Amino acid sequence: MPKLPLQRIEELVEDSVFHPSPCKLHRERVLRSAVQAAVHQKISRGLIAAVSAGVVVLGLGIVIVRLATSSSGAVSETAAPVSAAAANVTEASATPASASPAVPAAQPTSAGSMGEGLYRSSNPPDGQAPAPEGR
Amino acid sequence: MKFFKTKQAPASVKTVVDIHESTEFADRVRFCAERLAEQGVGALGGLYDATASRLVRYASTLTRQRDDAEDAVQAALVRIALRPGLLAKARYPWAYLLKITRNEALNIVRRRRPMRSLTRPDAVWSEAPPHGQDEIHQLVRLALRKLPSTQAEVVVLKIWEEMTFAEVGEILGQSPNTAASRYRYALQKLSQHLQSVGEEVRHA
């Protein structure tokens, strides 16, 4: 028997085409599931947007609070030596002068920077030798 | 090795990479895809009506089961409905849709293979054609069904979907020349099979 030429095979396959009709409920099922998937996608996108917005707001809040607390901390640090000096002044005025003449804290200090306080404590004005450093 | 020992095909068989020619059906799919991108999920019905039959036919080449093919088509269309812009912007929307359906069908085949080996294949390909019953056509469809799915899908895409080898290669993720080789080899196998069937019928 002669072999079928390939062109004839092509024609046979072309003629034997068929068009299956999907089952009746398939269309409804596809459309329903597509709508559901679209709704789920919208909801999940909304949730993601809300959560990310919340995270951004929370982060901003944390940054603002931290900035506020750090600035107030700096103010209290500068105010702290002043109040300590004022306390020393009141203590010195309350105690008699013979109690402790060599106490440097008894000397009234003007409000100044912390560096000035350190300088004064290391260089007493009465000609006393500074405290030995280290050994 | 057998693959490389095939005889040279006659000149009548198209084995060269041909240039894409937009068919009427492809234009219709593009129109449906653009409408889907504009109007959203509500316009999916038009795309379904235009393509479902062909998609089920192609998917059944891979799944060999009608319900699996329908599931693959459903999954593909749902994916398209979620991101309709991809289909509308695709170079060949019909080829892109076929590719998505192919991926879904292969996923289903991979997932359900152990279960399906216990059941008998259903008769989606042996359905009677709407215009008259023809025994030869039935035999051709059965012969096509017996081909490996990698070869059968090339024949289906090339002849039934009237695609070029460039489009077939794009869908299958192969070079057009590979698609052409598979097509030629599939036709030779079909020829052998139909010849043996014809001899059996003659002896009977």
How would you describe this structure in keywords?
heterodimer; A: 135 residues; mainly alpha; 3 helices; B: 204 residues; Rna Polymerase Sigma Factor, Chain: A; Arc Repressor Mutant, subunit A; 2 domains; 70% helix; 0% strand; elongated; disordered N terminus
Query: What is the CATH class of the largest domain in chain B?
Result: Mainly Alpha
What's the total helix number of chain A?
A: 3
Greatest contact pair? A-B, 31 and 50 residues
Give the number of domains of chain B: 2
Distance between the termini of chain B: 35 Å
Helix content of chain A: 55-70%
Q: What structural class is derived from the secondary structure elements of chain A?
A: mainly alpha
The percent range for strand residues of chain A is under 5%
* Share of residues in helices of chain B: over 70%
Rg of chain B, Å, rounded? 18 Å
Unreliably modeled segments of chain B: 1-20, 128-133
**Beta-strand percentage range of chain B:** under 5%
CATH architecture of the largest domain in chain B: Orthogonal Bundle
Q: Multimeric state of these chains? A: heterodimer
Cα radius of gyration of chain A in angstroms: 44 Å
Structural class of chain B: mainly alpha
What does the largest sheet of chain B look like?
none
Q: Summarize model confidence as the mean pLDDT of chain A.
A: 74
Structure description:
The complex is a heterodimer of chains A (135) and B (204). By secondary structure, chain A is an all-alpha fold. Chain A has a domain at 32-71. Chain A is 67% helix and 0% strand. Chain B starts with 23 loop residues before the first helix and ends with a helix. Residues 1-20 and 128-133 of chain B have low confidence and may be disordered. Chain A binds chain B through residues 1, 3-7, 9-10, 12-23, 26-27, 29-31, 33-35, 37-38, 41, and chain B through 9-10, 12-13, 40-41, 44-45, 48-49, 52-54, 56-57, 60, 66, 70, 73-74, 77-78, 81-82, 124-125, 127, 129-130, 134, 136-138, 140-141, 144, 155, 159-160, 184, 187-188, 190-192, 194-195, 198-199, 202.
